[in-house]
Write a structure and sequence with these properties.
With about 120 residues, this protein is an all-alpha fold. It has one domain. It has five helices and no strands. Helix 3 packs antiparallel against helix 4 and helix 4 (about 65-85) runs antiparallel to helix 5. The longest helix has 25 residues, at about 35-60.
Length: about 120
């Protein structure tokens, strides 16, 4: 169980942060902040979290950066798809573009994370 927790610790932290940010966004909307501003802010923070997750994950593995980034992005995409299905949101063009941006940011994070990894020599 501990090994399983260590393996998926980053994704669990991502889910907790995302849920917390969703809660904060809801409170801001109830306080009178514009919906567009709240969702844009949540999206930007989500992109930063995805980049950081892919960056950290790529530094820990010995595979190519783009593969690590793609794996990280797909893990996050699965989480978001499950959350999307649970909340019964419908898929549209905007959602597909959002998911493609997540994959691209995950790839970039993985590539940059792997390139910043110290060379073993």
């Amino acid at each position: 169980m501990k090994n399983l927790f260590n393996k998926y610790k980053l994704i669990l932290i991502y889910i907790i942060i995302l849920l917390f940010l969703s809660f904060i966004s809801t409170i801001l909307e109830l306080a009178g902040i514009n919906y567009t501003i709240c969702t844009s802010l949540l999206s930007i923070i989500n992109y930063i979290l995805i980049f950081m997750y892919s960056y950290i994950a790529a530094k820990k593995v010995n595979i190519k950066g783009y593969i690590s980034g793609l794996k990280s992005a797909l893990k996050i995409l699965i989480v978001l798809l499950i959350m999307n299905l649970v909340t019964l949101n419908n898929f549209n063009f905007k959602t597909v573009v959002y998911y493609l941006i997540i994959i691209i940011i995950g790839l970039l994070g993985g590539i940059i994370g792997k390139n910043s990894q110290k060379k073993l020599s």
